[in-house]
Sequence to fold (1530 residues):
Amino acid sequence: CGFLYKLDIQQGNLLNKTLVESLKPGMTKRQVTLVMGSPALVSPFEQNRWDYISSIRRGRSKMETKDLTLHFENDALVSIDGDYFSEDADQLIKDATKYKRQYPDEKRPDEDKKKRGGGGDTGQS
Amino acid sequence: LETFVVSDIRIDGLQRINAGTVFSYLPVEKGDKLTQERASQAIRALYKTGFFNDVQLARQGNILVITVQERPAIAKILIKGNKDVKEEDLMKGLKDIGLVEGEPFDRLQLDRVTQELVRQYNNRGKYNVTIKPKILNLDRNRVELNINIAEGKAAAIKHINIVGNHTYDDGTLRDEFESGTTNWTSWYSKNDQYSREKLSGDLEKLNSYYLDRGYVDFSTDSTEVSMSPDKRNMYIVASVREGEIYKVADISLSGNLILKEDDLRKLIKIQSNEIFSRNKLEKSAEAMTAVLANIGYAFAEVTPVPTVNREKREVSINFVIAPGKRVYVHRINFKGNTNTADEVIRREMRQLEGAWYSQAAIDRSKIRLQRLGYFKKVDITTPRVPGTDDQVDLNVTIEETSSGSFTFGLGYSQVQKFIASVSVSQNNLFGSGDRAALTVSQSFYEKRYDISYFNPYLTDDGISIGYDISLRKLDQSEANIAEYLSDTASFSTYLGIPISESDTVNVKLGVDKTRINTFEGATPDEIINYITLVNKGIPTPLKTFHQWNTEISWAHDTRNKFFNPTHGALLQLSAEVTLPGSTLSYYKLVGKYTQYFPITDKLTFQGSATIGYGDGYGSDKHNFGLPFYENFYAGGVADVRGFKDNTLGPSASPFDLIPQYSGYQQPLGGAFKTVATAEVIFPTPFVKDDNTTTRLSAFFDVGNVFNSNIAQNGVLRTTNNFSFSDLRASAGLSFHWQAPVGPIVINLARPIRKKPGDQTETLQFTFGAQN
Amino acid sequence: CTAIKNAFKGSNKENIEPPKVLTEFAPTVTVEKLWTTGVGKGARKTGVHLTPAYADGKLYAISTTGVLEALDATTGRTLWEKKDKKIAYAAGPTIGEGLLVVGTLDGTLFALNPADGSERWHAEVSSELISAPAVDGGMVVARSYDGRVYGFDAANGERKWIFDRNTVPLLSLRGNSAPLIREGVVITGGDNGKVVGLRLTDGVEVWEQVISTGEGRTEIERLQDVDGILQADAGVVYAAGYRGQITALAGNNGRPLWAHDLSSYSGVAISPAAVFANDVDSNIWSLDRNNGTSLWKQDVLGYRWLSPPAVQGDYIVVGDFDGYVHWLNLNDGKLAARVRLTKKPIDSVPLVVGNTVYVQASNGELGAYRIAK
Amino acid sequence: CHRGAKKEEVTETLPVDQLYAEGKAALVDGNVGKATRYYKRLIARFPFGPYTEQSQLELSYAQYKSHDDDEAYSTLNRFIKTYPTQKHVDYAYYLRGVVNFSRQTGFLTRYVGQDMTQRDQGFVNQSFQDFSELITKFPDSRYALDARQRMIYLRDNMANSQVNVAKYYLRRGAYLAAANRSRTVIENYQRTPQAGDALAIMVMSYKALGEDKLSADAERVLKQNYPNHPYYKGNWPKHPPLWKRVIPFTNKNSTADDSTL
Fold:
């Protein structure tokens, strides 16, 4: 029915335009990870193909998927093809406020003066 | 011991430990060449086992002879004289150091224990403590350990003095301090017990008190802690330098902003040429970090960097924003769910695996898990995934409460007097997340049989479905309502459809049959006439009403906690209307709005208003206004407190012909109800559970029930129309306790605005029964 | 006639030695009570020791409840008084250079006109002032609670110098040693177990001598304050420290002449031939002034938390926790007389003028007694 | 002295052999509380000798029987450290595994058939490691065979819990999460039936993400290893239809019941 609330299903990487443009063939896997972060999908059957895939289905609208595929040959980047969602600040804010009206003075329950470190008790690796 | 080839190994002095064990730890075997270096290795290995006080290596021909002296085993540990530190904690402390009955005893450990105990007592302000351990040697190489403790009394803080504070006097500065001088509450609050942590915490508060009011140069030069020679009184002196008040010059943002600058600037809580306040800086930085964490930058850090201009007494601030990498959630693991299924928890999570990290979604998930009502504690930690710098796991640790309740036996409620009831209810049936309840209850005036079932997740998107079958035989008069018997049987089923994160719409379809029988001379004429009117003028003591009804209700719930929330609101609107084919056609509208907001971090304000309105509709063949058995009532434990249940509002005309009934009033209820309450909730004294199970509040209630529609000589008339002067009011204290046996509510109420003839009650309570 | 009250009924719960019970004895000297009066409410709970000051027939006394009084020494009648609840007098008073100098708990040093108490000047210091300032050679020297020693010009209160290398450990005993001025050198004890000599004119350190070496694992075992009364006579300084030694030092270069192992928190008194001090267990010791050998030890007042002793003629005067004033014979320490001033502890040193002694208790009760010849 | 201790505590005076016999008898007829007390006093009073070793072992069994799992676990660890070469030490390793193994099959699983793969897996991993230590140290111990059986059951348990989550995410449309969960199953539990499910889920997830090539690779592997996987019969993984879920009391909330093979 028309007005049923559907949870946003978001998966995979959200990339930043300048970072993607700084990718150059010949980079090693280590360098790519430094620039782009870890790939969302690496198939167990193809180690040399990294997919920076991202899918988003907001509420009742259809799911869109974009995939930036990187191919390596003996640890050197060979080809980059496909498309990606680039980070759009306003959209991010809109998605987040769905869950949380910002109560200014309410401290997040498990947050105290601990180092941010993802809020986890095990510190930075 | 020059090197030689070991032909055989012999071990002397063994008692408890058998040779096999020693061989298994010994790094030397038969046939090895024993060098000096290997020998010392062997000795070290044997000492490491912790079994031996002494290990000697000797050579007889080519035989290696190891003489060992076993450490005595501890036969018994006795501790006397400990009051502050409980026995189990002491035993556990000893266990951690290795002093356990049956284990080998090491003298060195004993000194460490005594030292540790003295340090523990000093930390509690007991400086006159003396600890005397005694070791008794028993036979068979065993020892008995006696630890005698003389604790002495804790030193009390007698004098705290802050020197150099000209603008704010000692009193204001010290009221947030945890340490304080002895006063009448000290026996409980222990505020006069000195501890270094408490003091450093207090000095930090002093520091931020000044920094929050513009004193950028404020500094605590020195703090002296001293004690009287008899070690029973403590004196604390702190000397401070206030410095000047500074204003904020310009505010700039730098680093990788991610969001637009003016979005971030909206979060800054301090403006130029306002008085400098570190607290506002921190709050602004926290707000920005929170927004960045909400959109995936879990390790974002925002640091306000002040540059002080001493001449102009100004500080310009640059917020350096370091968002770090965008972070993704790798795995979501649940711990502690021995009864609840994984999916029941996972479906509440708003954060998905493989998605980017959203602190907002995580906080929302936590509230949803708490709202399920069958978890005592929900903790979420987000440790990094080793080997990556942009992935975290989400570990959700829950503590399950006994989600079911099996109450059998006696409940007592003001309304229903003694209730013998058997009720089995499970709000997490076998961990599947479904709610099921069976109630068979027999009370002074009511027989009730209900079965209800609710599945919150009929579909994965959270459409819920519920069923309710109940049979109720009710003698209304015992419930202080007019004198008649009602016998209802009803069945209803409803669907809950979430339309947003905090809004749900419920559609209910129900059928029920209500049989009313009245007693001439006891049931008020208004009711008897009404029934005769409905029965087309033929008076009858017995009347059955059939109806089909549907109800649409909308719930908007943004409360931040399940029990005792401090934020958010709960709005419930419902409209019930009977469908054609029912004996009477009427509709009932009910609206309830409750708003919570914190006054201080200890006090919460809760204001709520309820409005109910019902009336007949359609052709007058079925339209007899709102039937009396569907009337609203007011007054009672959970309504306008301080008045007997259901007694507010219009009542039947008294029977002057039957003397003993003369003063007796029979409330009829009404078709229009308005109730409003204002409550301030404060922490329950002497209870250390920070309001997770108890709730104490001061309340002010106002409300009443109006336009009761009655039949007089064949014609329908509504009496007691709404008027402000008829509103009743009361004030008092209310105590809620989620006891293991069930919710207990105790009200102490004093009616403020009442009219003669109102039946009031100062003490009202219910326990063990949902009233 | 003196009722004996054992105040420490619960002392074993306190895990402290119970005070010795006073026994009857025939007094060997008659003590005449001249007068008693109350000065404000004394030190209340601030742990400060208040002793009056005497100058040409007048006594000056203070109380931390904001009272400064001048009394006639012979009759105890109040001549004039200053009352202000907000000023917590705690240090002094000291008479000298025509000034009546007194310090307060919020770090203000007042120089007043002894005749009527009107203010000449006042100065600020960085922490509490709880030990009597010293006035001599045109200078007023005050010691603040954070260990600093200040030198002010007596004429106008202008600050001349500060000595601030007097470190204060994390935990110390309540109380500071009052500075002495002898031959242009300021002598004062620190909470760090040292006695230090400073030049009066510019506060430069002349000498420094360690009296007690506080070693130990816990803060309690490391307490080493030199808080008690110092004495200086004929170029020799006598000082005592907690968990330390009673030491005689040469006034000019601080070289130790002799030292005797005795832990005391209340300080020393001297007579022409001997040095007197009471140890932490309230036993009274008498040592020979030349070589520090002990002459006698009197433990009849054991664990009664005695005040610092004072020498009055041939007798030692000392107060105890129960408000009793005891006189002991100088040569053999025998009890000579006993009088009860009040029920509250007497913890500050009695003031001896001629053959009269003025004793101030912690609740502000002030009594004058004379030994009949 | 106060009257309470008039009857001298019998465990203080009994000689060692009688103390052991009484304790053993209590254990045999199920009085684990008495057995635990007797064994503890024996160990404290006679810290060495043949009886002590035996009673340490039986003490841990008594504690296990009285569901005092943490206590039993630490007693066993202490036994293994003190008597590493004792002839029954393999039993100690075995009992250590059983303590955690039985911890997770609580009361509800037996009577209500709660699917434990849906519950907290903390003790499952610990029990698995304890059993594997037994098998590596004492391959031919008489408990090795039973330990291996239990390990297989535990492995199956662990794999199932991963597959359940993968199925849930597949159903909700979080295809990347489903694919990643299946990947853990394929990498850690190769030859288990669940690996088949994981492969099938991976095929479906990749296809839903529009990764036809990857999906085809996965299908090829699935075809080779699990030719008759229900995936090929269509409508997999089966999820109770709406009309069935409407009936109250039927929802077990575990997708395990339609597990394959």
